[in-house]
Amino acid sequence: MNLSFTVNRRARTLDIDPRVSLLDALRDHLHLTGSKKGCDHGQCGACTVLVNGRRINSCLSLAVMHEGDEIVTVEGLSDGAPSPLQAAFVKHDGFQCGFCTPGQLCSATGMLDEIAEGWPSHASADLDGPYELTQAELSERMSGNLCRCSCYPGINAAIRETAGTGDAT
Amino acid sequence: MRPFDYVRAEDPVSASRAAAQANARFIGGGTNLLDLMKLEVMAPETLVDVSRLDFGGIAEDGDGLRIGATVTNSDVAADARVRRTWPVLSRALLSGASGQLRNKATTGGNLLQRTRCPYFYDTDTACNKRRPGSGCAAMGGETRNHAILGTSDQCIALYPGDMAVALRALDATIDVQRSEGAAERFSMQDFYRLPGETPDIETVLAPGDLITAVHLPAPKGDRQIYRKVRDRASYAFALVSVAAVVRMEGGRIAHAAIGFGGLGTVPWRDPDVDAVLVGEKPSAAVFDAAADTLLRGAVPEEGTQFKVPLARRVLRAVLEEATA
Ligand SMILES: Cc1cc2nc3c(=O)[nH]c(=O)nc-3n(C[C@H](O)[C@H](O)[C@H](O)COP(=O)(O)OP(=O)(O)OC[C@H]3O[C@@H](n4cnc5c(N)ncnc54)[C@H](O)[C@@H]3O)c2cc1C
Ligand code: FES
Ligand code: FES
Asked: In what residue span(s) does the FAD-binding PCMH-type domain sit (chain B) (predicted)?
């Protein structure tokens, strides 16, 4: 099937089997191997990308469902110099093996937009908003991204510094 | 994954027609269906993508609310009207899955998410739901995330979702466009089917029947709570969950509608439980009587014994909070 979409601000066209997941299309057909396949079943978040600005698990979506969509992967989060979030991950050691990192970065980028839009979370005491990115809010909002190296302290510090709610260290 | 034809639906009528063919399925967000297709638990030959059909988003409908079938779980949970007037629905949605999954999952697909029974997922084992007549490997097997209410001697698979539990307590209805084109509205009670002798049949839907919307009537109770107990704090299915919609008048319970997750083969509500509560002054004795009524027909397996006392404790805690 023919598929046209935008990946990291570049128009792309593929002729692709409908079975191919968005993740496999990005990795194996467009050779953007930043997005990772941890579980392939929506259980780890390593494959997180932004579709029209919102974070999703690219392993649980078919590429052909994304005709006309704007996809951003970890490769597209910055132009050249690391984004503030990426720089904060480096500064705070937000990774060890790095396998979960592309998903963490895309997920955190989407999550920060969600909190800016005033979306509530399971951790929110009331549903009125707006919300501050406390540690409880951050843990809940990022629970879809597992880190087998358990670098959560560094990941949390990096995200909170970027959101302006962390201790400046 | 088995090969299939992919069709992007242009409108609801042609979508229904395409999905009424043999072995065809709708796909919404795909977060449940694709998972199952990768494992070949489900193997449709045609996928009809309804995710871009516009069923009117979220719109006021008299003093109620109409939620189009393709609205994502995130958008429903964040909607200002839902947060203000039907908070138990926001809470239930926010307790489910992850931010990424809620951004993709649709209202229609969420209603039809299938059980997480590990034997349903494992195509090498017997499962009457996956392969009718093959038996049930869960009975006498490893049980934890299984039902204790509404089970049959054919199936103990749990309905795993959260959203539908809140919808039961809110007396929501489901709008369906039948494949022949007629529109029908179902109560939550009538929509889901108990496993009985046919655990493969889970709802009233026939092939090609399209969910178009969920309708929320004005809530009958202003005290709304969703409490979910699980093995980890987030990103996990319910062991037990309780959705309560309660109204108090003069120190007595004037309205009580209690939905239960983690317990039933379908999103659970027992009118007898509600009836035990209505008209009473809140007390430990009344709450215990409600729990006795809920659990009178429970059939736990070895691995699900813990749900009996857990359901009692969670129900009591929720009722204490809702009636305080
Ligand atoms: C890791 C993980 C954790 C999860 N945790 C939770 C949790 O804690 N709580 C919870 O409630 N859920 C949880 N879920 C399940 C999630 O909520 C469902 O996968 C999701 O809601 C399904 O919606 P969908 O649109 O992606 O459905 P799809 O996968 O697209 O479809 C599901 C079914 O619905 C049918 N369908 C879709 N749309 C329509 C329509 N309009 N009319 C008729 N039929 C239709 C499809 O044919 C299919 O049979 C979890 C999922 C994963 C992967
Ligand atoms: S690879 Fe997609 S969630 Fe694990
Ligand atoms: S850094 Fe190794 S999985 Fe997160």
From this structure: 1-221
Residue A168: inside a domain:
no
Please report how many Cα atoms fall inside a 13 Å half-sphere around the Cα of residue A129, on the Cβ side: 16
In sequence order, what E strands does chain B have? 5-8, 24-27, 46-49, 58-61, 64-68, 173-177, 183-187, 210-216, 223-229, 240-249, 252-261, 268-269
Q: How many domains does chain A have?
A: 2
Q: Do A119 and B74 touch (CB under 8 A)?
A: yes
Does residue A39 lie within any of the structural domains?
yes
CATH (domain of A39):
3.10.20.30
Q: How far is B271 from chain A (nearest CA, A)?
A: 28
Question: What three-state secondary structure class fits B287?
Answer: helix
Neighbours of B277 (CB within 10 A): 25
Nearest-by-Cβ selection for B78 from A42, A110, A120: A120
Same domain, A89 and A72: no
Does residue A42 belong to any structural domain of this protein? Answer: yes
Please, what is the angle between helix A101-116 and helix A152-163, to 10°? 40
DSSP letters for B218-259 = PPS-SEEEEEEE-SSSSSS--SEEEEEEEEEETTEEEEEEEE
Per CATH, domain B223-323 is 3.30.390.50: yes
Domain boundaries, chain B: 5-51, 223-323
Residue nearest to atom 36 of ligand 1 (CA): B109
Identity of the amino acid at A58:
S
CA distance B173 to B161: 17
Distance CA B266, CA B303 (A): 19
Query: pLDDT tens digit string along B274-311?
Result: 999 999 999 999 999 999 999 999 999 999 999 999 99
CATH number, domain of A118, equals: 1.10.150.120
In a domain, A69, yes or no: yes
Would you call B92 helix, strand, or coil by DSSP?
Answer: helix
**Minimum-distance CB partner of B103 among A56, A65, A127:** A56
Pair B26, A41: CB distance under 8 Å: no
Chosen domain end from A76, A97, A130? A76
Whether the CB of B5 is below 8 Å from some CB of chain A: the reply is yes
Tokens of B33: 């269906």
Which range marks the domain in which residue A123 is found? 84-163
Closest CA to B91 of B100, B99, B82, B104: B82
Q: Note the CATH number of domain B5-51.
A: 3.30.43.10
User: pLDDT, tens digit, for every residue of B181-240?
Assistant: 899 999 999 999 999 999 999 999 999 999 999 999 999 999 999 999 999 999 999 999
